[in-house]
Amino acid sequence: MSDEKMQQLFIEAQSYQQNLQVVATQKEALSLQLIETGKALEELTKPSKEDVFKIVGPVLIKVKRAEAKKDLESKRELITLRMKALDKSESRIKEKIEDLKERLAKAGG
Fold first, then answer.
1. For residue 58, what is the DSSP state?
2. Which fold is adopted by the domain 3-108?
3. Which of 31, 37, 13 is CA-nearest to residue 94?
4. pLDDT per residue over 6-38, tens digit each?
5. CA 33, CA 76: separation in Å to the nearest integer?
């Protein structure tokens, strides 16, 4: 394999590594959102008044407890779906990295 081809494979591997880091960062952010959402849902299960306050942008608005709970459950589902999509992306990237490592090992050795 030519040096140019080897260099191209190394550049491709670096790109995949960067993509993997981006996915890991996104997964971390979603994981934190999932924890926050779970804690908020837990708070909504505690006995209290019917209305609660919800942050919408820079404003707090009063909403029914059931509405807030429904919104948080929807948010949790969306986060979970996004996490699954990121898991799939992460797996594909890792497979591509492994494939490149094998190709580089064969070419180098």
1. T
2. Helix Hairpins (1.10.287)
3. 13
4. 888 889 989 999 999 999 999 999 999 999 999
5. 8
| Cα separation, 41 vs 29, whole angstroms | 18
Q: Which two tokens stand for residue 25?
A: 């960062």
Contact in structure between 1 and 107 (CB atoms under 8 Å): yes
pTM to 2 decimal places? 0.81
Q: What is the DSSP letter of 63?
A: E
Give, to the nearest 10 degrees, the angle between helix 3-45 and helix 65-108: 160
Looking at residue 59, its amino acid is: V
Enumerate the domain spans of the chain. 3-108
Return the amino acid letter for 95: E
pLDDT digits (tens, 9 = 90+) for 38-69: 999 998 888 877 788 888 899 999 999 999 99
**Six-digit token string for 33:** 């959102």
Query: Rounded to whole angstroms, how far apart are CA atoms 76 and 98?
Result: 33
pLDDT of residue 88: 97
* Among the listed residues 85, 66, 100, the one whose alpha carbon sits nearest the alpha carbon of residue 26: 85
